[in-house]
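I have a small job for you when you get a moment. Would you make up a two-line entry for one protein for me to read? No commentary is needed, just the two lines. Write everything out right here, beneath this request.
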Amino acid sequence: VWHIDYDRGGKTSKHAHHRGKKNIVVFDPIVMNTDVEIQDQIDYLATYKRTMDILKMANEQVDAQLAHFKEHGKMPNPYLKTFLFDGSDKWEMICRLCMKINDLGLGNDAIGVATKRVTRFNWGVRKTRYAAASHCWQALMVGGVHVYTIAHMKPTYDREGNELEGQEIPGWLKESDGDMQQVVLMYVDRERDELGRLTGVEKAFAVLSKNRVSLDLPGRHTVFERAPEEKGGSKWYVWPSLKYGRFETDDAQTGANDE
């Protein structure tokens, strides 16, 4: 498993749950800025280049392991099976800032370009930068690697600028989900008592909303339940079929189909 980790939670998760496992490799793509004349803490262009270097290295690894399979009839040990890109919303931000700062020269740093307008013709620069990564994801998939790109949700607004409750969308580049084979949405239900107070009980669900390889959408899948000990305690259900590249609801799982 290779994990490009913009949120920097990958190393802490590995330390907490998979300590000592050498088959999980976490890459930190963030390059910190050392130029005292620039206000940004992050060097966005260097971060972009480091990310692309990791993606190219992953594709080189796939080429090498496929050549090994062709020669020996089996994969080398270890081999790249799963690739996590975490997350594509941060990647969109990096591409956008590289466009404004480096490609269009609208300012020296993120603060300087924050309010600068971009014409609709120039937004294609951001799309081209973003697509450089998605082309690499697709090449990895063609090579048999399970690729997962993760994005946080972001709010949407009406014409008056009011946030639309319950209408959040993924924070990746608009329409970039067309490059993906499947899309899974995650959400959390927080239980309230008869007075509307939170009880501390939460259920997290995953819903397959797009699947290019099948017309069947298996419904939602319970990923975990969080609760105080007096209410049954917390439980991890995870999603076992992902290990085999499938998105199946486990009907035997407790709570999997609870309403």
Notes: Strands lie at 2-5, 25-27, 82-86, 146-150, 153-154, 169-170, 182-192, 198-211, 220-226, 235-236. The CA atoms of residues 131 and 176 lie 8 Å apart. The two ends are 34 Å apart (CA to CA). The helical segments are 10-17, 44-72, 88-103, 110-113, 123-142.
